[in-house]
What does this fold into?
Amino acid sequence: MTNQKLKPEKKKRYISVKETGMKILFLICALASIVAVIVICLFLFAKGFPAIGEIGIFKFIFGTTWKPSAEIFGIFPMIVGSIYVTAGAIIIGVPLALLCAAFLAKFCPPKLYRILKPAINLMAGIPSIVYGFFGLVFIVPLMQTITGGSGKGIITASILLGIMILPTVIGVAESAIRAVPDSYYEGSLALGATHERSVFAVIFPAAKSGIFAGVILGVGRAIGETMAVIMVAGNQEILPESILSGVRTMTANIVIEMAYSEVGSLHQNALIATGVVLFVFILLINISFSLLKRREKS
Amino acid sequence: MTNTVSEEKKDRTKSLTRKLYKNHVGSKIIRVLVWGAAVISAAILIFLIGYIIIKGVPNLRLSLFEWEYNSENVTMLPAILNTLEMTVLTLLIAVPVGIFSAVYMVEYAKRGSKIVKIVRLTSETLQGIPSIVYGLFGYILFVLTCGWRYSMIAGVCTLAIMVLPLIMRTTEEALLAIPDSYREGSFGLGAGKLRTVFKIVLPSAVPGIFAGIILAIGRIVGETAALIYTSGSGTNFTGNITDSSRTLAVHLYCLYNEGLYMEESYATAFVLLVMVVGINALSSFIAKKITKK
It folds into this structure.
């Protein structure tokens, strides 16, 4: 209690110094996330862009051969791989997720909701490496017996990712459905529509931008997913021929090859450049997500 | 008398509804689909957890919790201890920064200020960045540029940036939920802004902040891609922040990569799952307590 011994004026000054000092500290902390984004962009781009320049942007993005030993770096197969796997996840995961969201918001008895909602949250909390391991020891052998192939490939990765994006899409879509005013639903019922028809023909269209935002968030999750995909996608760095053939995604490419790329070599910088391309994809997805969310609000 | 009337009414509504559904086969199909989707999702989760438990528990052996790691006994004890150390250190950085920045956003910044908008945008961006990109960034900045090599501290710094937006957002929500009358009362009694924040606002927001921290712990424990190339895969627990050390999730990836230790992988996956489920249960328990208030 040193400040009690000080004279009143000094005490006042001491307090105001403390107040402004802490205010500045709070401000600095608030700026931390801005600094983080800038630093992440700077370091990734500083390493990635020179590599892309050296390889040639067209050759890098549209080159179909990836052969680090021969210094050929074309990531087109990986971009295609990421897109295929993500599209597959959307096809499998989104219909299930939207029906689930409708169930949680409009069909579910309250007692069941108290169990189901935490369960969905738990699904979001399970680490991707555990999903990957489950895919490896269960879905891959299952696909082997069904298709007779290796079991690893686009379809397996799509199924696993489709499961993994469920909680994300369900969460956003459910809150979008709940945000629609009850009067819409009641009006529809009064016109003689069934409960189901009211939900899917009246509430869904009203909530569509929020639902779409959820789907886009799911796309972001799927395209950025790494550990689970590595374990079930097969990781061949060639253009896939069918939905059964193995693919390597951009994320998998980074993790697999960083382990043996030499520090500072063009190979390593090309991998970082792969990360840059992925980052650009994610930024585009993020921007469209926040645009949609803003539209939902207005 | 009234009872029978209401009962009659009920019957009539029932028969009307039935008639309605007779004319709308589509609605019936959709109802089945919606229930089916919910059942499938729940079944997937139950099956996944059940499968890991059934395969994991028989493979749990006491030797898997021994101190010394070698190729004959890939014990997971060092990895568990590393995970704990990683979690504690990451929270030491991320929690104060996250809480302070939320305090600035809610208590200090003027409404609609530019800084708040930009901070919100950047923290949303940070949340969307995949963990492998964090891993790359951490590798470039901490491992290469700072010259820390693969080390616990490089992993800690990377993860701290990763969970920062999560703690920020949950703290912000908790602070916003506190009624202004609390603050006015404190000001009215002559307390300054700082004292109001630390003695009145933050203590009332503790449960919300705590729930956010637990979510962050869940992410740290489950994280793999951001750590492989920052904290590396050192197999021992040294407690030294400059040593390369693997967390439990990275340990599972390494076992998969070596491809020799299937039984141990099952056991590791089980332990990892138990940790995450426990953390999640704790967080929803706390969330429930908050809403009850």
